[in-house]
Amino acid sequence: MGKYDFNKIIDRSNTSCWKWDLRNNENELPMWIADMDLPTAPCVVEALKRRVNHPIYGYTYPSDKWYQAWINFYKERHNFNIEKDWLIFSTGVIPTISSTIRKLTTPNEGIVVLTPIYNTFFNSIINNGRRPIESKLIYKDGTYSIDWKDLEDKLSDNQTMMLIFCNPHNPIGKIWSKEEIVRIGELCKKYNVLVISDEIHCELTAPNKSYTPFASVNSINKEISITAVAPSKAFNMAGLNSSAIIVPNPYLKAKVERQLNTDECAEPNVFACDVAIAALNEGRDYLDELRIHIQNNRELVEKFIKEKIPEIEVTKQDSTYLLWLNISKISNDSDDFTSFIRKETGLWLASGSIYRGDGKSFVRMNVACPTSLVEDGLNRLLKGVTLYKNKQ
Predict the structure, then answer these.
(1) Residues 321, 235: Cα–Cα separation, whole Å
(2) Computed from CA positions of residues 211, 214, 217, 222, in that sequence, does the dihedral angle turn out positive or negative?
(3) CATH classification number, 18-40+284-391, choose in 3.90.1150.10, 1.10.630.10, 2.60.40.10, 3.30.9.10
(4) What is the dihedral of CA 261, 264, 269, 274, to 10 degrees?
(5) What stretches of the chain show up as alpha helix (H) in DSSP?
(6) How far apart are CA 79 and CA 120, in angstroms?
(7) Model confidence over 223-251: pLDDT tens digits?
């Protein structure tokens, strides 16, 4: 038993919780959205309490402590020396991406994404009148790789202005290697393509695994990139609207900062900086135990599926708490599959189709919860697969 209890069931009903309060009925088990059913680190709760006890909640700004917390964390955790002048506060990773798209591209220009990829990227692209360009990842033997020829073809189009890179990659849970990141940077530099690197899942790697920050590998990547980071996934505090942007290129930084202010998403709420400082400075042991808990749940899923639902293949992955399950031997219509499973068993999984690429043959399962809920979800999945095969 570790210092933190990640197996306690916490009732989230009637808290205006998207994950639980939008269920069709009380029997449903939601394992779709990237939202942990685990408590945040006690140091974050204590930081909130301290700030709440001060009775004035006025305008605030990122203090030197906020900048230093990010600098120290990346130095100690990832051996990456971030400078204060590179950092910008933002209310969230998606606001950062949408705002940057508006400032650094123009309508109808192309933005490349490696699919399957987080579906909200498409909203940020399409809602701003830009064109998403898919470079589909290659799936083989339970893992994904980049189709380098296709990626270069897409980047070389003179209407392609930006690549949104997901590092580590959601939903496939892949940690990109330094060599892959260097090669992507070289291609983007060659074709004058800017990179937004979404690194929100970067702390949720398997124990003894770490990720490589996009901007850390060389001067080229620093020059062409905007990196979006946040403590929200790792510490389960997305509702506190606290993130940061790392932009080493001063010209790009000025552009991004200007647009964030235009869009009114550069001003922290009264709690946003305090919770980030607490998490980054005091939450390292929490993160380490959390990663072990998630890994144990991942291994439980892998063992259960291998023994009892061998038709499903669990993608090999070393990051995130989102498992990417290949259901192609059962169905190539993940919408129909997830709808049926939800109706018949109450298990609510994410359909892979929304992530594009080959997502119609996959579903996404969130295992950042007490192990008893994972066990419940697996038993429902087994029941649902049996019923689904019988109906065909």
Answers:
(1) 12
(2) negative
(3) 3.90.1150.10
(4) -30
(5) 18-21, 42-52, 64-78, 93-104, 120-126, 148-156, 178-190, 219-224, 250-262, 272-282, 284-308, 334-345, 371-391
(6) 30
(7) 999 999 999 999 999 999 999 999 999 99
Rounded-to-integer distance, Cα 207 and Cα 376, Å: 25
Q: Are 369 and 294 a contacting pair, CB within 8 Å? A: no
Q: How far apart are CA 82 and CA 80, in angstroms?
A: 6
Provide the token pair at 213: 């920050």
Average pLDDT on 302-319 reads 97
Q: Are 289 and 283 in contact (CB under 8 A)?
A: no
Round to whole Å and give the CA distance between 143 and 113: 18
Which amino acid is residue 197, in one-letter code? S
Q: Output the six-digit token pair for 103.
A: 């400032």
At residue 134, φ and ψ (nearest 5 deg) are -85, 130
As a CATH number, domain 45-282 is 3.40.640.10
**220 close to 230: Cβ distance less than 8 angstroms:** no
Q: What is the pLDDT of residues 178-224, one digit of tens each?
A: 999 999 999 999 999 999 999 999 999 999 999 999 999 999 999 99
Q: What is the mean pLDDT of residues 25-32?
A: 96
d(CA 332, CA 392): 13
Laid out side by side, the sheet with 313-314 consists of 313-314, 322-326, 362-366, 350-351
As a whole number of angstroms, the distance between CA 50 and CA 327 comes to 48
Q: What are phi and psi of 210, to 5 degrees?
A: -140, 160
Chain-centroid distance of CA 356 in Å reads 16
Q: What is the dihedral of CA 338, 172, 318, 94, to 10 degrees?
A: -100
Cβ pair 341, 381 in contact under 8 A: yes
Residue 82: helix, strand or coil by DSSP? coil
pLDDT value at 392 more than 90: no
Peptide bond into 116 cis (omega under 30): yes
275 neighbors 231 (Cβ within 8 angstroms): yes
Q: Where are the domains of the chain?
A: 18-40+284-391, 45-282
How many CA atoms lie within 13 Å of 196's alpha carbon, on the beta-carbon side?
A: 28
